[in-house]
Structure formats: structure tokens, C-alpha cells
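Milestone 3.1: sequence recovery, worked example.
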């Protein structure tokens, strides 16, 4: 009974594997898809037919040669078959996007968070979802924030929002009447890079973000690593500069002190007594400013060391760099790459840097990405069950 549908049934598992493969690597020929998920070609044809009839999967208009000698058509998810809202929460604003099944941004909105109480933030998210949807049916909503989240909804700690033990997922689900997932923002961003971003097509890679904090995400063998301590910011206090400044926890020369925007700006303020913004700091460093230049030079060296350390310990060769501090990389990518290679064995493969400089939009798309695979798999299983 290969078609049997039910919780964990073989049909449900098969369509989950099919839709996951199409999301990750589509479009694919049926034969390619069958090889990836371990099904026979007749079974693949039988399982995908109801997905096509339901409008979840489509055939390419153009045929391509196949191993059988007969023209074949590639399959892919139908991007506009379902729609999702992703919301990224910072300590000061909510960034929302409406996406399709490919997490393509269709609409976006940004709203300030004037009241950080959970009830007020829930009201803001609901208003964002309503405005973004504009009457369109929404399949699910994903929310991401900096902090520790368990069970895809219960926020145990969110330092930027000053929250402890907030059941945000349940609060939102009662108001929105669709499935809701709440995740750590680095987990969400890493998922977005895996499914639809810089990491698409890579089986293993790391994500490092620099900005208000330092974030670290990891994909191994096609899966996002999500450990119990995810959300504590464990990548934020890696020692990288022996004689560097202290971070707010008293760690000398750690990644927070060296690589975060507040850390760099506080160094400049301590040396000059003047307040400047991040872009001005980099501009002054490029102009050879006697204070700004060594701060940025230390950050470049520190980021390169961080990249090399991650590549060495995780035994991978691809690193995605993102975050609101990404200008450090776009201006000095060769220097970051050079430092990373300095810290590796000369015979090791080069580390490839994949730069995501698209701002906060990927973080909101990442929030949507956390709900897309399961939502599509559930819709596909339902379609198969009705066939």
C-alpha cells in the first residue's frame, strides 16, 4: 500500500521527500527525483500525478532528452500555489514579508515596535499579516527573533525584546487561525539560505552574521542544525584577538567585542569621545583615519579568523556571510578570505565566501522558510489522500 496516507504513513513520507527535493533542487526530471528519494520511476509518476492535478507541482513547458531516449519534462513546485507571511522581530521593529512557495518576496512592510510587551507585539504582528495578505489566503505564518525558542513557539528568552517565557506561538495561533512557527532568527536565516538563498545546492555550510550581535548557523548534510542551546548566541563570545577590548560580559577580544557594530563603535567612542555611525566608521577607515583604520583592520582579521575556525572545526568549505554589518565583507572580502586561509592547513581546500548583502529581508523570508516545507508536504499528502 504505497499510497497509504496517515501520520507517518509511507505515502505521506514519500510526498514529504518529493516536495522537499523539489524545494531544495527543483526543477527535476522524474527520473532524477526518483533517484533522490529512492522510489521507482512508476511509483514516482503515480505519486506526482495527484500533486500536479492539485496545482502544487507543475511540469516545465519544454521537454528535455532523457535516458530512455523519449523527451521528458522537469517537475517543480508551483510557486504561487500557496502563500506565507514571515516576520522578523528586532528590539525596535517588525519586518514582514509575503512570500510564495519559493520564499520569493511579494510584498514587504516595516513597522516600529513602540511597545515591547507581548500583547502589543502580537497585535502588531497580526496587523502586519492582515495588511500583507490583503485578502489573500495565507497557509502559515513564521516569526523569527533573537533569542531562545523551544517547541517552535515558546520563547524562553529574547534579550532584544526583554522577554522571558512568552508563549508567542500559541498567542499568535489563537489570533491568526493558521499554523504558526516561532524560531530563533539565525535558525530561520540558515533555513532560508539552505532552501532558497546562498546555500541552495550546498549540502553543508555555515552562516555567520555580524551586526548588533554575532550569529552562527550550521547546515550539515542538507539539514539545519538546531541544538538545545541554539539562541544563546554561542558564536558571540569566541576568543579571536588576544589583546582586544572587553565585551559587555568581560571577555577580552571575543567576537562580540571585535565584530559587532556596537563593539566597533564603542571602541571609536572610547578613543575619541565622538559618536559616529557604522558607515562613517568604515568610510574613515578607508580614508586612513588613525583611529578608525585599526578598529576595522582588527575586525577584518577577527572575521577571517572566525571563518577559518568554523571551516576547520566543522570540516566544511562554504561560509555564508550576512547581517547588517555585511559592509565589512563587501569592502574587504579578499582580506577576510586571506585571513581565513592563513589559519588553515596549506593543503586544505579554499573557503568559499557567499555574501548575502540584501539586508533584513532574508531574515523575514527565513521566518517564512521555517513553515514552507511542512505546509507544502501537508498539502501534498492531502492531495494524495484524495486521489
Amino acid at each position: 500500500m504505497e499510497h497509504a496516507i496517515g501520520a507517518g504513513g509511507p505515502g505521506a513520507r514519500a510526498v514529504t521527500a518529493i516536495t522537499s527535493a523539489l524545494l531544495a533542487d527543483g526543477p527535476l526530471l522524474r527520473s532524477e527525483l526518483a533517484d533522490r528519494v529512492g522510489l521507482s520511476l512508476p511509483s514516482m509518476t503515480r505519486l506526482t500525478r495527484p500533486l500536479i492535478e492539485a496545482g502544487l507541482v507543475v511540469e516545465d513547458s519544454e521537454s528535455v532528452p532523457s535516458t530512455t531516449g523519449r523527451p521528458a519534462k522537469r517537475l517543480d513546485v508551483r510557486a504561487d500555489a500557496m502563500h506565507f507571511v514571515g516576520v522578523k522581530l528586532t528590539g525596535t521593529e517588525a519586518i514582514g514579508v509575503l512570500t510564495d512557495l519559493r520564499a520569493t518576496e511579494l510584498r514587504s512592510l516595516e513597522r516600529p515596535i513602540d511597545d515591547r510587551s507581548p500583547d502589543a507585539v502580537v497585535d502588531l504582528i497580526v496587523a502586519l499579516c492582515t495588511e500583507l495578505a490583503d485578502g489573500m489566503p495565507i497557509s502559515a505564518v513564521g516569526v523569527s527573533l533573537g533569542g531562545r525558542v523551544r517547541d517552535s513557539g515558546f520563547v524562553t528568552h529574547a534579550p532584544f525584546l526583554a522577554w522571558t517565557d512568552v508563549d508567542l506561538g500559541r498567542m499568535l495561533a489563537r489570533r491568526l487561525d493558521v499554523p504558526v512557527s516561532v524560531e530563533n532568527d539565525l535558525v530561520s536565516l540558515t533555513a532560508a539560505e539552505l532552501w532558497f538563498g546562498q546555500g541552495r545546492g550546498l549540502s553543508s555550510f555555515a552562516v555567520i552574521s555580524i551586526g548588533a550581535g554575532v550569529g552562527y548557523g550550521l547546515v550539515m548534510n542538507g539539514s539545519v542544525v538546531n541544538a538545545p542551546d541554539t539562541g544563546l548566541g554561542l558564536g558571540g563570545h569566541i576568543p579571536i584577538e588576544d589583546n582586544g577590548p572587553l565585551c559587555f560580559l568581560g571577555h577580552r577580544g571575543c567576537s562580540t567585542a571585535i565584530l559587532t557594530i556596537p563593539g566597533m563603535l564603542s571602541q571609536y567612542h572610547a578613543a575619541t569621545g565622538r559618536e559616529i555611525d557604522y558607515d562613517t566608521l568604515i568610510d574613515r577607515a578607508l580614508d586612513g583615519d588613525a583611529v578608525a583604520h585599526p578598529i576595522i583592520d582588527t575586525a577584518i582579521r577577527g572575521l577571517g579568523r572566525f571563518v577559518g575556525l568554523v571551516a576547520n572545526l566543522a570540516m566544511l568549505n562554504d561560509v555564508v556571510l550576512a547581517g547588517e554589518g555585511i559592509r565589512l565583507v563587501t569592502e574587504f572580502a579578499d582580506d577576510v578570505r586571506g585571513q581565513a586561509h592563513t589559519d588553515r592547513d596549506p593543503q586544505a581546500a579554499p573557503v568559499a565566501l557567499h555574501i548575502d548583502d540584501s539586508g533584513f529581508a532574508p531574515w523575514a523570508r527565513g521566518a517564512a522558510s521555517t513553515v514552507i516545507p511542512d505546509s507544502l508536504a501537508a498539502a501534498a499528502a492531502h492531495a494524495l489522500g484524495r486521489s
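The CA atoms of residues 308 and 340 lie 4 Å apart. DSSP finds 13 helices and 16 strands in the chain.
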